């Protein structure tokens, strides 16, 4: 029967043969269960460990990066920053995540910004750039057992030797990635548990084998390899025909699998993970999506880990995929953050399981729609998680969800084997209130009494229940954070900080290139401490980075404002920099960015353009600006008119602008070139 096949598929490592072997083995292993199922009343489900357990559970996690998704988190003031981190990582508090996956920054655009590489150039190593090191340490501080994963989206240009491809010199790429893992340990005492290949892009079997060899050569045998962070195929097929590759890949990671796997993936007998999933706006529907896939990735697809993109929405909301995090923290200037419903949906699983537990062998489809999973620690503890998410209230951003129906139902669970002696189960409940607007999130109810090995439960739609022998769950709450406030309407940064806690200035969100604090040893004057654009070669890209570098800041709703900044062109002849306003785009769409851009060039000319690409010229002329000299640029935008000043004197005025009607402020450069910025001011 279909049920028997489903049960056989749950049979862990042994259940990956094909055809009759699996069916016969499944019937033998689950013969008692099938017979019992035949006599069960409607809505009855048997939980039994006598015939062995299902696949080991590997944990629930979330992703920081891919890209720059935690950008605004770092400059929250205390106590708010620690409260946010507690909600994400602290055991028995909030999401209590088991896994933190981070981007290995590569200087390229990776969705909502760029993340800096530990090696901008071939002879350069710095393990204190960006914020992922800090985030991993904060996670470990709260949960020493949390698993850490690194995955690159982009690579510095030198790795490709001029080609937009990381596999032509696989020894160089392997050395680069292993350096990051060694740096994590040497400088931050962080043990990386898993490493990936290249996010959602092609894999190279030769490179993966060389990566394993390089890891082992450096004493990193404990670091496991995930491949290929894309689709189930072709990696599953290649693993079946290449025994050497099969020996070095530990986990098959698929993205947005829609809760389904493929036969070849099962045949490999590897751990199967949804290594990136969710990516959905974090309202009640997002919570419904997350609840459904957390269960059904295992029930339908044998996946033993699910990782959400992204961990926390700490980037400007108008960038792509705004608020697609488990919680929202996008206002460091006010301290406001929001613990969204997906945090508490996560808690239903994470607070009552641990990596190393095992799933029970049971078909987790409920007869009235919805699903359940049951897990055990193997020494008597049992956790059951039930979800009854309706179709329209649980659609993820991708893939599309075929229609199905869910109705209220009564379920009865029969506990057998070592669970027969369980007398009571703790109950935690969430109900997503779409019609009423009132959701109940992660509420502790009265324990359920188990009578002669069975108990019943009435389920409504759009609910999550956790029933568990563990008594450790908690819904912890911090005091309410401050109310939301817009970005300050008068904002200054002189970058005068000798030992900055992070390499990037607060609130600047790099969209192409990397802008870092810089100590200008050659300038004894007012410009010792500056912000410098440091990427001088186009990276190996993941999406279409712009040909210019740009960092945005401020309030996307700004209409009339003045931007002033001191600028220093370092590149002779064809170097150039800009300041801008009403900047309307970023992230994966950075190449199509419009706005009002005021450029000056090392050849003594200036331009005003309506786009980052510099093609829509509104005004041009001579400025007298030269490289290796400080100048002050001022851009004023009022209504449909803009004007510009150089060193306090008008350079151009009354330039007519039609659209965009609002947007961020920005700074940047003409190409991938060194340039410096100081005394930034927007009003």
UniProtKB/TrEMBL annotation:
One term under GO cellular component: lysosome
Signal peptide: 1-37
Active site: 200, 276
All residue ranges annotated as the Glycosyl hydrolase family 59 C-terminal lectin domain in the record: 510-683
Pfam families per record: Glyco_hydro_59, Glyco_hydro_59_C, Glyco_hydro_59M
Keyword Signal: yes
Enzyme class (EC, first level): hydrolase
The family this protein is said to belong to: Belongs to the glycosyl hydrolase 59 family.
Family matches, as PANTHER family: GALACTOCEREBROSIDASE
UniProt protein name: Galactocerebrosidase
Source organism (scientific name): Ceuthmochares aereus
UniProt gene name: Galc
């Amino acid at each position: 029967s279909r049920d028997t096949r489903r049960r056989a598929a749950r049979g862990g490592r042994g259940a990956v043969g094909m055809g009759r072997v699996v069916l016969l083995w499944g019937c033998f292993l689950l013969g008692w269960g099938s017979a019992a199922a035949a006599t069960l009343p409607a809505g009855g489900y048997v939980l039994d460990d006598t015939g062995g357990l299902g696949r080991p559970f590997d944990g629930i996690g979330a992703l920081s990066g891919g890209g720059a998704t935690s950008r605004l988190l770092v400059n929250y003031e205390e106590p708010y920053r620690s409260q946010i981190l507690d909600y994400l990582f602290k055991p028995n508090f909030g999401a209590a995540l088991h896994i933190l996956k981070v981007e290995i920054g590569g200087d390229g655009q990776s969705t909502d910004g760029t993340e800096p590489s530990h090696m901008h150039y071939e002879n350069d190593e710095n393990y204190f750039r960006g914020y992922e090191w800090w985030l991993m340490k904060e996670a470990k501080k709260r949960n020493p057992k949390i698993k850490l994963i690194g995955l690159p989206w982009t690579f510095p240009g030198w790795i490709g030797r001029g080609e937009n491809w990381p596999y032509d010199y696989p020894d160089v790429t392997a050395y680069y990635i292993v350096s990051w893992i060694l740096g994590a340990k040497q400088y931050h005492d962080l043990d990386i548990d898993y490493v990936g290949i290249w996010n959602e892009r092609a894999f190279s079997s030769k490179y993966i084998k060389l990566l394993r060899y390089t890891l082992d050569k450096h004493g990193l045998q404990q670091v496991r390899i995930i491949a290929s962070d894309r689709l189930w195929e072709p990696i599953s097929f290649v693993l079946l025909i290449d025994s050497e590759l099969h020996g070095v890949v530990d986990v098959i990671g698929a993205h947005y699998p829609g809760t389904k796997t493929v036969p070849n993936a099962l045949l490999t007998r590897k751990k199967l993970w949804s290594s990136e999933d969710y990516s959905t706006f974090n309202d009640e529907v997002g919570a419904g999506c997350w609840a459904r896939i957390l269960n059904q990735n295992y029930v339908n697809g044998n996946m033993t880990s699910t990782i959400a993109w992204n961990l926390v929405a700490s980037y400007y909301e108008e960038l792509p995929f705004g608020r697609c995090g488990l919680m929202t923290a996008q206002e460091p200037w006010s301290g406001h953050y929001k613990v969204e419903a997906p945090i508490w949906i996560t808690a239903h699983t994470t607070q009552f399981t641990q990596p190393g537990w095992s799933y029970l062998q049971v078909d987790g489809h409920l007869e009235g729609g919805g699903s359940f999973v049951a897990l055990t620690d193997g020494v008597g503890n049992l956790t059951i998680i039930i979800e009854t998410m309706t179709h329209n209230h649980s659609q993820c951003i991708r893939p599309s969800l075929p229609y199905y129906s869910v109705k209220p139902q009564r379920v009865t669970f029969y506990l057998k084997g070592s669970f027969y002696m369980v007398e009571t189960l703790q109950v935690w409940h969430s109900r997503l209130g779409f019609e009423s607007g009132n959701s109940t999130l992660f509420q502790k109810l009265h324990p359920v009494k188990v009578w002669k090995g069975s108990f019943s439960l009435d389920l409504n739609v759009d609910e999550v229940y956790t029933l568990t022998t563990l008594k450790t769950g908690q819904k912890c709450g911090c005091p309410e954070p401050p109310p939301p406030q817009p970005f300050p309407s008068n904002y200054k940064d002189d970058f005068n900080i000798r030992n900055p806690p992070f390499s990037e200035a607060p609130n600047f969100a790099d969209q192409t290139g990397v802008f870092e604090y810089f100590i200008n040893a050659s300038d004894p004057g007012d410009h010792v401490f500056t912000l410098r654009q440091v990427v001088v070669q186009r990276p190996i890209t993941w999406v279409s980075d712009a040909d210019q570098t740009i960092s945005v800041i401020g309030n996307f709703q700004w209409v009339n404002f003045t931007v002033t900044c001191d600028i220093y062109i370092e590149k002779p002849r064809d170097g150039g920099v800009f300041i801008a306003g009403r900047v309307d785009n970023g992230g994966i769409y950075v190449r199509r960015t419009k706005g009002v851009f005021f450029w000056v060039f090392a050849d003594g000319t200036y331009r005003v353009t309506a786009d980052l690409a510099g093609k829509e010229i509104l005004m041009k002329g001579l400025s007298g600006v030269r490289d290796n000299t400080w100048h002050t640029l001022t851009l004023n935008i009022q209504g449909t008119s803009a004007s510009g000043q150089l060193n306090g004197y008008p350079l151009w005025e009354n330039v007519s602008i039609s659209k965009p009607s609002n947007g961020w402020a920005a700074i940047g450069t003409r190409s991938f070139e060194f340039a410096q910025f100081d005394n930034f001011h927007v009003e």
